[in-house]
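Hi team,

As requested, here is the filled-out complex form for the zinc ion run. I kept the field names the same as last time so the parser does not choke. Let me know if anything looks off before we queue the next batch.

— J.
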Amino acid sequence: MPYSRQPRATTLGIVIAVVLAWGCSYARAAVVVLANRASQPVRCEITSLAGPQEHTIARGDLICVPVSARDESRIAFEADGSAVGYHLDPNACYYFFDTSLGGLNLQKIGYSEEASTPPLDDAPATQWEKVGKKLPRVSKIPVKLLADDEERMVAKAWQDRLRARLEAASAIFERTCRIRFEVVAFDTWDSDDRITDFNRSMVEFEAEVPPAPARLVIGFTSQYSPMTGQTKVGGTRAAFYPYVLVREWSQHYTEAERLEMLVHELGHYLGAVHSPETTSVMRPVLGDRQARLRSFRIGFDPLNALAMYLVGEEYRIRGNIRRLIELSPATRLQLRSIYQEIGRAIPNDPASAQYISLLGNLPAATQHTGLRPVVPEAGAAASEPVDSGGSVLLRPLRGANK
Ligand SMILES: [Zn+2]
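And here is what came back:
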């Protein structure tokens, strides 16, 4: 009827106008990743959009701090009883380390210049940049969890167990890149008893299980238990790929190790690749018993944390991303630089090259043109292979050394 159509058309008009305006104002906040490789917890103050904010970074941990992509950010911390200050570049990684003189200093993890340049569109700041006071919102990824017919517990017990594990994993991602994995459904599938090979199990899982109503389905198979030597315990095919499969039943693994395997696969889902850093959850071979230690912290290396934050930021803004190639050219250029840097440090692992190919065609890379020479810093974490691309000088703040 005419009287009801008119208002509906008006509503539609407003919706379209809002979407267009949102599309035009597509611009992102940036992030700074700070890792603590020093022997003590580090306290620092970072000044960016939200004004000065205090942070404490536990030993071996890292934090991801949203900063302005446009305005300069600064960091201050205490070293040898005096205040030290540096400028921070947006979308960059830094680490604290013990100096040979027993003090504390900060080093930038170098990778190619194009990646340290944030995408500055000629567009107004994002809502978050305008507000500035609180953190960017957390985006959710709906997940369906499945056990196969070999699962030994009753439904309630395995669902509680896997839900708790996903929540523990999700807390790590929320802290690192403001993404939450949320259970929206449980189900089971019949796995073929004749299959003992992981890759064939994956094919069977993909064929049998539809992803709906989730974006991501995670299958926990208890199909085959004997494991000798290096065995594939989990896998997915690409970032944003809707299937992850992990081995569940094995007397060889503790719950902490199972959590680590899940975080590793979800890291791949959000764009992380294999890391040469021996304590990173993205090291190529897990099950090395590190996760059994009470002091061990399941977490990401700085470059993978940065990659996931960039992917997560675009997912927050655009939502419907199903492949890396759908990311904006600016983000894909940054990811390529990060993957190249990681790949250089772990040349025998195919993951970074595979993810670079998933980024699609991009302009030829500039080879580290913007980097200043490596600073020979005595006592710095020189053995960290991921820094092999070169560390760069930090710009001290004038007047910060009091
Ligand atoms: Zn992996």
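Two things worth flagging: DSSP finds nine helices and 14 strands in the chain. The CA atoms of residues 15 and 204 lie 42 Å apart.

Thanks,
J.
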